[in-house]
Amino acid sequence: MPPPSLPAARDPAAAVPTTTTTSARRRSKEGATAAKVHPAPTEKGAMGAAGGEDGWRLPEWCSAAGVAGILRRHPLPALFACGLLLFMAVEYTIPMVKPDAPPLDMGFVVTQGMHDAVAARPWLNSLLAALNTVFVAMQAGYILWAILFEQRPRAAVAGLMMFTCRGMLGCATQLPLPDEFLGSGMDFPVGNVSFFLFFSGHVAGAVIAAADMRREGRVALARLYDALNVLQVVRLLACRGHYTIDLAVGVGAGVLFDTIAGWYFDAKNADGKNAHCRSCQCHKALLSH
Description:
Blueprint: H1 6-10, H2 18-37, H3 43-51, H4 64-73, H5 75-93, H6 106-110, H7 112-119, H8 122-148, H9 154-172, H10 201-215, H11 219-238, H12 244-268
Helix pairs in contact: 8-9, 8-10, 9-10, 9-12, 10-11, 10-12
């Protein structure tokens, strides 16, 4: 038998044959493989098998306790769900307006008393129209101030998008002017000229301006514009200058195009330190792109 090597002589543990260690490692590896191939059944796996071959079962929120939890934690979506069911029933059962009948507008019904008062006083109609035109000029003035003096073009771009879309929709579907429309030479557009009904640019422009004010921290001014916008809505309904749907979509259009304008400038600034910045301060470099 040959003499042990020098390392083995110095370390007796190193003289142990490697075959024993190799065999132990092989057995350990085989045991791990067997454990992976035949895992022990767990509680979750047992429940999944009970639910079906693929382990699917109803979500927890489908139970009575789950529904109660949703109603408690998310009352607003639950209310919208009830509204869906309600208006599905209303839509499928409400009688349609006849082709030869005027549109049925609930906003006109609510403001009928104010309409009669304004119709009986032409001077009041002209005064309200003039005040509304001043408010439109205030919207335009603020948006122009933002782009020309503060170099913040987001509101201006949103306004351009909004009025372009409004013109396209107005040409695509021309709604009839209400029979009780109270026109005035003091109204905007000044001169009692024709205009698109769907959707309201008056309302959308005010929403865009107020959104820009909030981004700049001018909360009090934004609230003032919101209040004037509500008064504008009432006046337009009372004078039959817009249908209710024109005004409601005007609010949504203002929010939509303000958001799209923000996306546009975020994409333009995405190559620098202003990426994903929602503040209009990062949009000052209008001409740099």
